[in-house]
Amino acid sequence: MTTGRRPVVVGVENSAAGMLAVSWAADEAARHALPLRLVHASEWPADPAGAQAEAEPSRYDGRLHRAHVFDWSVETYPEAEMPVVRRSWAERRRAADEALLDKARVVAARRRPDVPVTTAAVDGRPVDVLRAQAREASVLVLGSRRLSAFTELLTTGSIAVPVSAHAPCPVAVVRGPEPITGEPPTVVVGVDGSAGCERAVGYAFETASLRGAGLRAVHVRAPTASMVAAFGSEAEVEEALIRLGETLAGWSEKYPDVLVERVTVLGHRVRALADVAADALCLVVGSRGMGGFRGMLLGSVTNGLIHHAPGPLVIVPQGGDVG
């Protein structure tokens, strides 16, 4: 992965999943001898007394305003004093953002004290801010709570899908801690022969080499009526393994230290990859390919794995410098 000195960037949120992502990002930065950038994006209304404010007449001249902003209620003030209230509100929000970043910095420093850390509190939609940050990152790391796909659509966890679809760098979605496994540890990569898959394979080989891990390359075939009977045959499995080996051959020569296991599975792609990666350090996939329709920005399998991967998921884009 040719990245120069571009930092590992992590989107920080105030949750256990967010702090887990910070720890994972610190480890990634240490492995690649890169700096770590902690970013928190806040989207706040320009006028805190906006749509939720209640204006009512009073016995005094002018109007009084009461602004309810999330869980903090601003006291009533004459209209002329509202600019002061806005400044106070903005200052309090900024202080909260900085406090969160300070907390994340402590987590990163405890995890990897040798990694240089910078922070940035940025105003704007989190999706837009993180897409912009991705243009300067070697890897973008996001936390994701273990929620149902529907529930996750209503939370900040949903940013993983639109950010991954547009990011020019690999995006790591940390859904849970790396499993405690026996030796040797394993990196899993989904292989389907697409252009995006080639870059994902390169990223997976490099990761396995850096971590002293084996590589489990998995090709999943969605079943059809004709395939179900034939797939179990020795010839059918051997043909699939040969094609898989051809995809991996050049990378095995580049990383001779990585022991490769080739696996072919017949089944639902999301479920099969999640099952095979249950004990893996991470699961690596391409941003497209492995199912979906022409024109989709994110493959359907990759989209599904954002919600169902058992541990860290790394999504590698078709473009960029990988390998």
TrEMBL record:
Protein name listed in UniProt: UspA domain-containing protein
Coiled coil: none
UniProt superkingdom: Bacteria
Family that this chain belongs to: Belongs to the universal stress protein A family.
Organism lineage string: Bacteria, Bacillati, Actinomycetota, Actinomycetes, Kitasatosporales
Entries under InterPro entries matching the protein: Rossmann-like_a/b/a_fold, Universal_stress_UspA, UspA
The UspA domain, residue ranges: 53-175, 186-317
